[in-house]
Amino acid sequence: MVDIATRVHNHKWKIDPIVRSLIDTDFYKLLMCQSVFRNNPDTNVTFSLINRTTRIPLAHLIDEGELREQLDHIRTLRLTRGESTWLRGNTFYGKRQMFRPDFMEWFENLRLPPYHLERKGDQYELTFEGAWPEVMLWEIPALSVLMELRGRAVLKDMGRFELQVLYARAMTKLWEKVERLRKVDDLRIADFGTRRRHSYLWQDWAVQAMMEGLGEKFVGTSNCLIAMKRDIEAIGTNAHELPMVYAALAEGDEALAASPYDVLADWHEEHDGNLRIILPDTYGTAGFLEKAPDWLTKWTGIRIDSGDPAAGAEAAIAWWTARGEDPTQKLVIFSDGLDVGKIEELHRQFSGRVRVSFGWGTLLTNDFRGLVEDDALAPFSVVCKAVSANGRPTVKLSDNPEKAMGPQGEIDRYKRVFGVGEQERVEVVV
Predict the structure, then answer these.
(1) DSSP helix/strand/coil, 126
(2) Dihedral angle sign, alpha carbons of residues 404, 408, 411, 412
(3) Which is it for the CA torsion 333, 340, 235, 266, positive or negative?
(4) Of 104, 182, 253, 340, whose CB count within 10 A is highest?
(5) CA 193, CA 242: separation in Å to the nearest integer?
(6) Smallest Cα–Cα separation from 181: which of 356, 382, 412?
(7) How buried is 96 (Cβ within 10 angstroms: 0-12 exposed, 13-18 middle, 19+ buried)?
(8) How far is residue 196's CA from residue 149's CA, in Å, rounded to a whole number?
(9) Residue 359, Cβ density class (10 Å: 0-12 exposed, 13-18 middle, ≥19 buried)
């Protein structure tokens, strides 16, 4: 097992790359990339890094030169032969050759496009602009770099013994969570913690702890590199990026209202009926379900990623029931801001009523709360989102107005088109 504390102590090397592989990313990102490569290869998209937790002054904590070094290193990466073989030949979700030969040929020759970095006060403005399939692959590595450099800034003056004790405490904290989850019957849980992890080494350790501690209850990881390295399932489907860009490209209100369903129609065709998980909250879950076409009721399940998770699951159960479907045969994946207590609570509430699954993110791979002075390693909310497509702004409403993004005028228009009324504000922890 890697001695993480010693590795962290040695980060004073000229460059210790944070991202060492193009597949050190979330599986859903590659699945979406293939779909975009097929359906929207020439769409010009701008991604921007947004620090929702403005009290964290990233530009004061992180040296600009070091940040550029890490980003420049990512631009040198290419798929290795072993990574390409794994993607081409492995079975994902029971399907061989999930990734088409034309997409793989493109991916094997890809180098990530240039980035734009500018300091604005005590924050960094980091943007990526270009062809959608290329720039979308910046999201996860960019977030990984920002999160880990912030951690390195906090840890840089700690001695070897102090670091050993810190990581021992963090390991104990995580293992106590695993021991609690062992007691949950019929648990189904995966690692979704790549984007806001403490570090790659820590995520890899957390996955190994889950594998040993939970056995078959642990069903896989969203991280492709770790999935390959540890020979476990790569987990993922789709994300808000697809409906946000499709909506921005829509001509007029009628096309805008139809765009979330157009995304899923393309997805259905792309994956031959596989990976049929609905993500309904981009423009409000209630309106999405109310207007959803009947063919969507046949899909496998739904992912709840904002708002009150119990309310979201109840809405899905009511929707399936009203459309003549048996909710007990449907999958509900909870994936927003989870920790052990919430996992236990939701499992008790919905077990037996639906098939329950959890995508455990930041508080699996980055829970160092209370372990250093001033809680300087507590996780914070930073995202990298598509902010425009072909020059038009993107919008996200979510089921929590705290997660909404886009120009106010467009937010108001989207609320009108999608029939979104008053929403309950929920604090965004991570």
Answers:
(1) strand
(2) positive
(3) positive
(4) 340
(5) 20
(6) 356
(7) exposed
(8) 12
(9) buried
User: How far is it, in rounded angstroms, from Cα 148 to Cα 363?
Assistant: 15
Claim to verify: residue 114 and residue 201 sit in the same structural domain: no
Q: How confident is the model at residue 179 (pLDDT cuts 50, 70, 90)?
A: very high
Element (H, E) at 37: helix 27-39
Lowest mean pLDDT among 5-14, 47-56, 305-314: 5-14
Q: Indicate whether 423 belongs to any domain.
A: no
- Say if CB 393 and CB 387 are below 8 A apart: yes
φ/ψ (deg, to 5) at 188: -135, 110
Domain that holds residue 129: 4-29+39-157+384-391
Q: What region, left, alpha or beta, does residue 10 occupy, with left being phi > 0 and alpha being psi -120 to 50 degrees?
A: alpha
Query: Distance between CA atoms of 341 and 158, rounded to whole angstroms?
Result: 32
Per-residue model confidence as pLDDT tens digits over 389-420: 999 999 999 888 888 899 999 999 999 999 98
User: What is the spatial distance between Cα 193 and Cα 218, in angstroms, rounded to a whole number?
Assistant: 14
pLDDT, residue 399, reads 86
Q: Is the pLDDT of residue 135 over 70?
A: yes
Task: Answer yes or no: do 138 and 201 share one domain.
Answer: no
Strands 189-191 and 218-221: parallel
Q: Which residue has the higher pLDDT, 5 or 342?
A: 342
Reading the block at residue 29, the tokens are 């990102």
What is the overall mean pLDDT for the chain?
94
Angstrom distance (rounded) from CA 298 to CA 278: 11
Complete DSSP assignment for 66-86: HHHHHHHHHTT----HHHHHH
